[in-house]
């Protein structure tokens, strides 16, 4: 438990399922009031909010497209209206789809960049404006990926978006550090969520992913949520502009294990 989080307010984008859902649950367990954003899965988001309220927490489910200014404004408005302000903004929403780059349409490229990178910019901008207006020490957490560092053929739009998130996060961390705003990214490796449920349902594909992970297990959303809670809390007060890899060692070039190379 991070006691300093109690009573504070968080927005978590893409919170109806997967990693975002685990983060919303964890922050509510830390006694934060949570705006759970969903894009299309209203039922699951509202059920999560109800469950958290029944467990003594405070949460509200709000529909919004993070790639639009109106959507982001609706989330900030909800935080202010329902919970009286904002302390932590988690840009988690993201998407991916496999397409060889030479066959990728402009529409496919723009869709992924819009959600994964423009959505992060819009969310961070809204949060920063709120923090500056209220002269508040704020906290922004951006969901990146090991693919902010590792190239990923047939997912060029995704890798480009996450590489963009890395330098965007570092830049705004520097830009607003003196005003008390901390900005960090989390880079998950392979985490068992709906985004890759199909892949992990196939034992062959699951094994080929496991082969890339020194710890030899697929991560759980709760393991990423634990990193988000720490970054949100004052326990990480001296940490800004960094990416925390939560990847079971995936980014350690496992092909070099046992002295190869
Ligand atoms: P997921 O598909 O389970 O969840 C993604 C969430 O984003 C969903 O709730 C979806 O509705 C939401 N979303 C998509 N487009 C949106 C939009 N326009 N507006 C609002 N919400 C939108 O996937 P996940 O695995 O939980 O992914 C969460 C984040 O973690 C993503 O940014 C993803 O890139 C990142 N990530 C995941 C993994 C992994 O292995 N699961 C690895 C690295 C990074």
From TrEMBL:
**Alphabetical list of SUPFAM superfamilies matching this protein:** NAD(P)-binding Rossmann-fold domains
The family database entries (InterPro entries) matched by this protein are listed as:
KR_dom, NAD(P)-bd_dom_sf, Sc_DH/Rdtase_CS, SDR, SDR_fam
| Domain Ketoreductase stretches | 8-197
SMART domains in UniProt: PKS_KR (SM00822)
Q: Which GO terms describe its biological process?
A: bile acid metabolic process
User: What Pfam family is a match for this entry?
Assistant: adh_short_C2
Is-annotated flag, keyword Hydrolase?
A: no
GO molecular function ontology, one term from the record: glucose 1-dehydrogenase [NAD(P)+] activity
What are the boundaries of the signal sequence?
Answer: none
Regarding protein family, the annotation reads: Belongs to the short-chain dehydrogenases/reductases (SDR) family.
- The protein here is known as Sugar dehydrogenase
Q: Which organism is it from?
A: Sporolactobacillus inulinus CASD
């Amino acid at each position: 438990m991070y006691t300093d989080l109690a009573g504070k307010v968080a927005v978590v984008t893409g919170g109806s399922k997967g990693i975002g859902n685990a983060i919303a649950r964890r922050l509510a367990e830390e006694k934060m009031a949570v705006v759970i954003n969903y894009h299309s899965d209203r039922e699951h988001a509202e059920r999560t909010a109800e469950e958290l309220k029944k467990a003594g927490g405070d949460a509200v489910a709000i529909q919004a497209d993070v790639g639009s200014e109106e959507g982001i404004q609706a989330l900030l408005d909800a935080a202010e209206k329902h919970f009286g302000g904002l302390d932590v903004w988690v840009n988690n929403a993201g998407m991916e789809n496999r397409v060889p780059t030479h066959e990728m349409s402009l529409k496919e490229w723009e869709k992924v960049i819009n959600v994964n990178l423009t959505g992060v910019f819009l969310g961070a901008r809204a949060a920063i404006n709120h923090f500056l207006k209220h002269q508040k020490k704020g906290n922004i957490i951006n969901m990146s990926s090991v693919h902010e560092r590792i190239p990923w053929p047939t997912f060029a739009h995704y890798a480009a978006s996450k590489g963009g998130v890395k330098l965007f996060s570092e830049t705004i961390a520097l830009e607003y550090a003196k005003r008390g705003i901390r900005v960090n990214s989390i880079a998950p490796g392979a985490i068992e969520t709906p985004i890759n449920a199909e892949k992990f349902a196939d034992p062959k594909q699951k094994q080929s992913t496991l082969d890339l992970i020194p710890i030899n297990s697929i991560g759980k959303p709760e393991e990423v949520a634990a990193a988000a809670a720490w970054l949100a809390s004052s326990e990480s007060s001296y940490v800004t502009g960094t990416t925390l890899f939560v990847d079971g060692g995936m980014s350690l070039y496992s092909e070099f294990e046992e002295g190869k190379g």
